[in-house]
Design brief:
By secondary structure, the chain is an alpha/beta fold. It folds into 2 domains: about 140 residues, Aspartate Aminotransferase, domain 1, CATH 3.90.1150.10; about 250 residues, Type I PLP-dependent aspartate aminotransferase-like (Major domain) (Aspartate Aminotransferase, domain 2, 3-Layer(aba) Sandwich), CATH 3.40.640.10. The protein is about 35% helix and about 15% strand. It contains 11 helices and 15 strands. A hairpin with a 5-residue loop joins strand 11 and strand 12. Helix 2 packs antiparallel against helix 8 and helix 3 packs parallel to helix 8. The mean pLDDT is about 95. The chain binds D-malate. D-malate (MLT) binds next to loops.
């Protein structure tokens, strides 16, 4: 692939990677945008594609990180390797604020601090057996699918783009973007609420049905709650552990990326309740907490002391106020996007409890066709729905993560097309 000088070593590659499309979705979008901007220099391209935050880090977090840096400059305050699971003071405040305050029986030692939910949802597959059957929604956050492909849990891609061996649960306007609970057995189910990419949410009653399914089938739910802070209605569950019985059958992934603007700073956490057990081939019960702890302590050296101090500050009074202001800011962007697009005649979904607005593309265009159209005619970047799965074809995602000025400008341009 690199021309005549490439030398074939005897080492084998992981052939599962060859089943994947050439590029991961977001780098592929960046590549296309780069081609476009190089061929038409000087254009003011507005990026509402990848869900990357744009607003400054909360002052409370910056202050805490600065103090931590100064501490690190003293002999008594210096910190070397930290605990792989994260510092207790951070896990304690997470457990108290994010779980116990909502009635979820989660303890600090069930929390594993990490550098991202994307890595954790992928890495978690390492401690699960190869033979597990897996269900994902379609469309879906592509990391869940791609990491299963990489791990050899699927067959090849079919013409539709779906991989053989995975159970796909379609999401579309007809089912209100709510996946139907499978009628067959699956071992492992990925759920993401508020949903990326559709922006849909789930009620307690409906989430309880998934937990019932998992308990009946003794399946494991991987619950991605990276966007929980964007929920605007307190009747909706922020955590799967608000549902009785979920402690027995669910792992939850959380992140500081989107609420506190840590996409570049990197801090997240995963909750592995003690007592969630899988089994070894001989039916011996094995608790996932111990395996995840073994995995993390072998392969991960923890998040830096400085960043964990920054994350801890999210839970201070000032931190909470600033995070709330950030969330409100992006949700106002989302409301602006929804209003303008609806006014321009688009069918609009999501964006009410999530920073993503999911729209139907105009007749006669497919998702990538609309991507090109929007890029060329409005110089606005979004994400084609088909990039999230075959059933996302015909849809398009716009992210609310940008400055107010850019969002307003982008909406003006799209409205006047
Ligand atoms: C997205 O745009 O879907 C997210 O930014 C992806 C991520 O958080 O990794």
């Amino acid at each position: 692939m690199f021309g005549v000088n490439a030398i074939a070593l005897v080492v084998q590659v992981n052939q599962n990677y060859l089943k994947l499309k050439a590029g991961y979705l977001f780098p592929e979008i960046s590549r296309r945008v780069k081609l476009f901007t190089e061929s038409s220099p000087g254009l003011d391209v507005i990026r509402l594609g990848i869900g990357d935050v744009t607003e400054p880090l909360p002052l409370a977090c910056r202050k805490a990180m600065k103090e931590a840096i100064d501490e690190m400059g003293t002999s008594s305050g210096f910190h070397g390797y930290g605990p792989e699971q994260g510092y207790f003071w951070l896990r304690e405040v997470i457990a108290k604020h994010d779980f116990q305050a909502r009635g979820c029986p989660i303890n600090p030692d069930e929390i594993f601090v990490s550098d991202g939910s994307k890595c954790d949802t992928s890495n978690f597959l390492e401690i699960l057996g190869e033979g597990n059957s897996v269900a994902v929604t379609d469309p879906v956050y592509p990391v869940y699918v791609d990491s299963n492909v990489m791990a050899g849990r699927t067959g090849p891609a079919q013409e539709s783009g779906q991989f053989l061996g995975l159970s796909y649960l379609p999401l579309n306007a007809r089912n209100d973007f709510e996946a139907q609970i499978p009628e067959h057995h699956v071992d492992l189910i990925y759920l993401c609420f508020p949903n990326n990419p559709t922006g849909a949410v789930i009620t307690r009653e409906k989430l309880a049905r998934w937990v019932d399914y998992a308990r009946q089938h003794r399946s494991l739910i991987l619950f991605d709650a990276a966007y929980e802070a964007f929920i605007q209605n307190d009747d909706l569950p922020h955590s799967i552990y608000e549902i009785e019985g979920a402690r027995e059958c669910a792992i939850e992934f959380r992140s500081f990326s989107k609420n506190a603007g840590f996409t570049g700073t990197r801090c997240a956490f995963t909750v592995v309740p003690k007592g969630v057990c899988g089994h070894a081939g001989n039916n011996e019960l094995v608790d996932l907490w111990s395996l995840w702890n073994r995995r993390q302590s072998t392969k991960f050296n923890g998040v830096s002391y400085i960043v964990q101090r920054g994350a801890e500050a999210v839970y201070s009074q000032q931190g909470q106020e600033e995070v709330q202001a950030l969330v409100s800011f992006y949700m106002q962007n989302s409301a602006i996007i929804r209003r303008h697009l609806a006014g321009a005649g688009f069918t609009v979904f999501g964006g009410e409890h999530a920073p993503y607005v999911w729209i139907k593309v105009p007749d006669g265009l497919d998702s990538w066709g609309f991507f090109d159209f929007l890029l060329q005619k409005a110089n606005v970047v979004g994400t084609p729905g088909s990039g999230f799965g075959a059933a996302g074809e015909g849809y398009f995602r716009l992210s609310a993560f940008n400055s107010r000025e850019n969002v307003q400008k982008a909406m003006k341009r799209i409205s006047s097309l």
